[in-house]
Amino acid sequence: MSASSPQTTRSERRSRGSSDPSGRLLLRMPRSLHGALAQVAERDGTSLNQLITGTLASAIGWTGEGAGEGVVPDRAPDHAAEARSKRTLTLVLIANAVAVGLAALAAIGLLLYALLG
98 and 71, same structural domain? Predict the structure, then answer.
């Protein structure tokens, strides 16, 4: 490695430099994932950067310093929680329908007993 090479000097500075991260990250991902994330961000009315940063922050429970720097972790949708909530609602509605059906059968039974008995 030549000390006079600007590329080497920059990369050495990056690897040995300050322990304070720059806040920038180059991330490679499949095009299909990139497209899906862009659609979710558009649907949620947020930027792709805010969506990804918020999702990563919520995945590790991060609420640290710099949270107000254009990043809104709470705006990232929690799709797993939404799915659990929908499943729970469906189960509660089914249980309610079963309970109403059983109450109706009991009421019919009592009416028949009263009329015939």
Answer: no
The answer to whether residue 11 is domain-embedded is no
3-class secondary-structure state, position 70: coil
Phi-psi region of 78 (alpha: psi -120 to 50; beta: other; left: phi over 0): beta
Domain count, the chain: 2
User: Which residues fall within 8 angstroms of residue 20, CB to CB, at 6 or more apart?
Assistant: none
56 touches 37 (CB < 8 A): no
Query: Is there a single domain that holds both residue 92 and residue 60?
Result: no
How far, in Å, CA of 22 to CA of 5, rounded?
A: 23
Distance in angstroms (rounded) separating the CA atoms of residues 37 and 47 = 10
Q: Whole-structure pTM over 0.70, yes or no?
A: no
Which whole number is the average pLDDT over 24-53?
92
